[in-house]
Amino acid sequence: MDFNNKNLLNIFNPAKVTDESLMLTVLAFLPAAFAAKTIESTLIYLLLMIIFLILTTLVSKLLNLIYEDKGFVIHSVSFVIVAVFITILSNAFFIEFSKDFDRTLILMSIGALPYMLRKDNEDKTIHHSMLNTLQSFLGFSIVMLLIAIFREVVGTGKIVFGTYTNITFELNLFSNYALTILSNPLGSFLVLGVILAILQGRAKKEELKWHLY
Fold it and tell me: Distance between CA atoms of 134 and 137, rounded to whole angstroms?
Protein backbone atom coordinates (compact mmCIF):
# COMPACT_ATOMS: atom_id res chain seq x y z
CA MET A 1 0.00 0.00 0.00
CA ASP A 2 1.25 3.47 -0.88
CA PHE A 3 1.33 5.69 2.22
CA ASN A 4 2.91 8.68 0.47
CA ASN A 5 0.88 11.94 0.47
CA LYS A 6 -2.18 10.32 2.03
CA ASN A 7 -2.11 12.04 5.42
CA LEU A 8 -5.32 13.99 6.03
CA LEU A 9 -4.56 14.49 9.73
CA ASN A 10 -1.96 17.23 9.22
CA ILE A 11 -4.50 20.02 9.42
CA PHE A 12 -1.95 22.62 8.29
CA ASN A 13 -0.98 20.71 5.15
CA PRO A 14 -3.56 17.98 4.52
CA ALA A 15 -3.33 15.57 1.61
CA LYS A 16 -5.93 15.51 -1.13
CA VAL A 17 -9.14 13.75 -0.12
CA THR A 18 -9.33 10.51 -2.09
CA ASP A 19 -10.71 7.04 -1.44
CA GLU A 20 -7.20 5.91 -0.45
CA SER A 21 -6.54 8.80 1.94
CA LEU A 22 -9.96 8.35 3.55
CA MET A 23 -9.34 4.62 3.98
CA LEU A 24 -5.94 5.27 5.58
CA THR A 25 -7.53 7.84 7.88
CA VAL A 26 -9.94 5.17 9.10
CA LEU A 27 -7.02 2.80 9.60
CA ALA A 28 -5.19 5.50 11.58
CA PHE A 29 -7.94 5.24 14.20
CA LEU A 30 -7.91 1.45 14.40
CA PRO A 31 -7.77 0.43 17.17
CA ALA A 32 -7.11 3.86 18.75
CA ALA A 33 -10.81 4.77 18.64
CA PHE A 34 -11.57 2.10 21.25
CA ALA A 35 -9.47 4.06 23.78
CA ALA A 36 -11.75 7.07 23.26
CA LYS A 37 -14.18 5.65 25.81
CA THR A 38 -14.13 8.74 28.01
CA ILE A 39 -12.42 12.12 27.89
CA GLU A 40 -10.10 10.97 30.67
CA SER A 41 -9.02 7.77 28.89
CA THR A 42 -8.55 9.72 25.65
CA LEU A 43 -6.25 12.29 27.26
CA ILE A 44 -4.06 9.51 28.68
CA TYR A 45 -4.00 7.72 25.34
CA LEU A 46 -3.03 10.94 23.54
CA LEU A 47 -0.18 11.53 26.00
CA LEU A 48 1.16 8.06 25.26
CA MET A 49 0.49 8.48 21.55
CA ILE A 50 2.58 11.65 21.23
CA ILE A 51 5.49 9.86 22.91
CA PHE A 52 5.01 6.94 20.50
CA LEU A 53 4.93 9.19 17.42
CA ILE A 54 7.98 11.21 18.47
CA LEU A 55 9.97 8.04 19.13
CA THR A 56 8.90 6.34 15.89
CA THR A 57 9.77 9.48 13.93
CA LEU A 58 13.25 9.55 15.46
CA VAL A 59 13.75 5.82 14.97
CA SER A 60 12.59 6.03 11.34
CA LYS A 61 15.07 8.81 10.60
CA LEU A 62 17.84 6.75 12.19
CA LEU A 63 16.91 3.63 10.21
CA ASN A 64 16.83 5.63 6.99
CA LEU A 65 20.46 6.55 7.62
CA ILE A 66 21.47 2.96 8.37
CA TYR A 67 19.47 1.11 5.72
CA GLU A 68 19.59 2.58 2.25
CA ASP A 69 16.70 0.48 0.97
CA LYS A 70 14.43 1.97 3.70
CA GLY A 71 12.74 -1.40 4.09
CA PHE A 72 9.15 -1.65 5.26
CA VAL A 73 9.71 -4.70 7.47
CA ILE A 74 12.50 -3.24 9.59
CA HIS A 75 10.42 -0.12 10.23
CA SER A 76 7.39 -2.23 11.16
CA VAL A 77 9.45 -4.18 13.70
CA SER A 78 10.79 -0.94 15.17
CA PHE A 79 7.22 0.36 15.57
CA VAL A 80 6.25 -2.78 17.48
CA ILE A 81 9.28 -2.38 19.78
CA VAL A 82 8.36 1.24 20.50
CA ALA A 83 4.73 0.23 21.16
CA VAL A 84 5.93 -2.38 23.68
CA PHE A 85 7.96 0.33 25.41
CA ILE A 86 4.87 2.58 25.54
CA THR A 87 2.90 -0.28 27.09
CA ILE A 88 5.57 -0.72 29.78
CA LEU A 89 5.44 3.03 30.41
CA SER A 90 1.67 2.90 30.77
CA ASN A 91 1.88 -0.05 33.18
CA ALA A 92 4.23 1.99 35.34
CA PHE A 93 2.25 5.23 35.47
CA PHE A 94 -1.36 4.42 34.48
CA ILE A 95 -2.08 1.03 35.97
CA GLU A 96 -5.88 1.10 35.72
CA PHE A 97 -5.72 2.47 32.18
CA SER A 98 -3.37 -0.35 31.18
CA LYS A 99 -5.77 -2.95 32.53
CA ASP A 100 -8.43 -1.75 30.08
CA PHE A 101 -6.32 -0.71 27.09
CA ASP A 102 -3.08 -2.71 27.19
CA ARG A 103 -3.82 -4.39 23.87
CA THR A 104 -4.85 -1.12 22.29
CA LEU A 105 -1.46 0.36 23.17
CA ILE A 106 0.43 -2.58 21.65
CA LEU A 107 -1.65 -2.16 18.49
CA MET A 108 -0.47 1.43 18.07
CA SER A 109 2.12 -0.15 15.81
CA ILE A 110 -0.46 -1.31 13.24
CA GLY A 111 -2.28 2.00 12.88
CA ALA A 112 -1.76 3.80 9.57
CA LEU A 113 -0.51 7.09 11.04
CA PRO A 114 3.11 6.09 11.86
CA TYR A 115 3.45 4.57 8.38
CA MET A 116 2.09 7.69 6.68
CA LEU A 117 4.45 9.82 8.74
CA ARG A 118 7.41 7.56 7.92
CA LYS A 119 6.74 7.91 4.21
CA ASP A 120 6.08 11.67 4.28
CA ASN A 121 9.14 12.32 6.48
CA GLU A 122 11.46 10.17 4.39
CA ASP A 123 13.14 13.06 2.57
CA LYS A 124 12.59 15.74 5.23
CA THR A 125 15.09 17.04 7.76
CA ILE A 126 14.64 15.99 11.38
CA HIS A 127 13.15 19.41 12.22
CA HIS A 128 10.57 19.30 9.41
CA SER A 129 9.82 15.67 10.19
CA MET A 130 9.09 16.47 13.82
CA LEU A 131 6.92 19.44 12.80
CA ASN A 132 4.92 17.24 10.44
CA THR A 133 4.52 14.65 13.21
CA LEU A 134 3.30 17.21 15.74
CA GLN A 135 0.88 18.79 13.26
CA SER A 136 -0.52 15.37 12.38
CA PHE A 137 -0.84 14.51 16.07
CA LEU A 138 -2.89 17.70 16.53
CA GLY A 139 -5.35 16.57 13.87
CA PHE A 140 -5.42 13.07 15.36
CA SER A 141 -6.10 14.56 18.83
CA ILE A 142 -9.01 16.68 17.60
CA VAL A 143 -10.76 13.66 16.09
CA MET A 144 -10.06 11.49 19.15
CA LEU A 145 -11.46 14.15 21.49
CA LEU A 146 -14.56 14.57 19.33
CA ILE A 147 -15.13 10.81 19.55
CA ALA A 148 -14.60 10.89 23.33
CA ILE A 149 -16.94 13.84 23.83
CA PHE A 150 -19.72 12.16 21.89
CA ARG A 151 -19.19 8.80 23.58
CA GLU A 152 -19.07 10.18 27.12
CA VAL A 153 -21.06 13.42 27.10
CA VAL A 154 -23.75 12.53 24.57
CA GLY A 155 -23.60 8.79 25.29
CA THR A 156 -23.80 8.96 29.10
CA GLY A 157 -24.80 12.56 29.83
CA LYS A 158 -21.88 12.85 32.24
CA ILE A 159 -18.21 13.79 32.46
CA VAL A 160 -16.40 11.57 34.94
CA PHE A 161 -12.75 11.69 36.00
CA GLY A 162 -11.08 9.46 38.56
CA THR A 163 -11.21 6.07 36.88
CA TYR A 164 -7.65 6.21 35.51
CA THR A 165 -6.06 9.19 37.30
CA ASN A 166 -6.04 10.83 40.72
CA ILE A 167 -8.08 13.76 39.37
CA THR A 168 -11.57 13.02 40.63
CA PHE A 169 -14.82 14.73 39.75
CA GLU A 170 -18.19 13.97 38.21
CA LEU A 171 -20.41 16.34 36.26
CA ASN A 172 -23.95 15.15 35.60
CA LEU A 173 -25.28 17.01 32.57
CA PHE A 174 -28.30 15.12 31.20
CA SER A 175 -27.83 11.47 32.12
CA ASN A 176 -31.58 10.80 31.88
CA TYR A 177 -31.62 11.86 28.22
CA ALA A 178 -28.32 10.39 27.02
CA LEU A 179 -28.05 8.55 23.70
CA THR A 180 -26.59 5.39 25.20
CA ILE A 181 -25.78 3.83 21.83
CA LEU A 182 -22.92 6.33 21.48
CA SER A 183 -21.29 5.08 24.67
CA ASN A 184 -20.70 1.70 23.03
CA PRO A 185 -17.57 1.01 20.92
CA LEU A 186 -19.80 1.31 17.85
CA GLY A 187 -20.26 4.97 18.77
CA SER A 188 -16.60 5.64 17.94
CA PHE A 189 -17.11 4.58 14.36
CA LEU A 190 -20.42 6.40 14.02
CA VAL A 191 -18.68 9.66 14.94
CA LEU A 192 -15.67 8.83 12.75
CA GLY A 193 -18.01 8.03 9.87
CA VAL A 194 -19.70 11.42 10.19
CA ILE A 195 -16.32 13.21 10.16
CA LEU A 196 -15.18 11.30 7.07
CA ALA A 197 -18.50 11.99 5.33
CA ILE A 198 -18.03 15.72 5.97
CA LEU A 199 -14.50 15.56 4.52
CA GLN A 200 -15.67 13.67 1.47
CA GLY A 201 -18.58 16.04 0.99
CA ARG A 202 -16.30 19.06 1.10
CA ALA A 203 -13.91 17.43 -1.36
CA LYS A 204 -16.70 16.72 -3.83
CA LYS A 205 -18.00 20.27 -3.43
CA GLU A 206 -14.55 21.69 -4.22
CA GLU A 207 -14.22 19.33 -7.19
CA LEU A 208 -17.62 20.40 -8.53
CA LYS A 209 -16.73 24.06 -8.09
CA TRP A 210 -13.46 23.50 -9.99
CA HIS A 211 -15.31 21.84 -12.89
CA LEU A 212 -17.81 24.69 -13.03
CA TYR A 213 -15.01 27.23 -13.39
Answer: 5
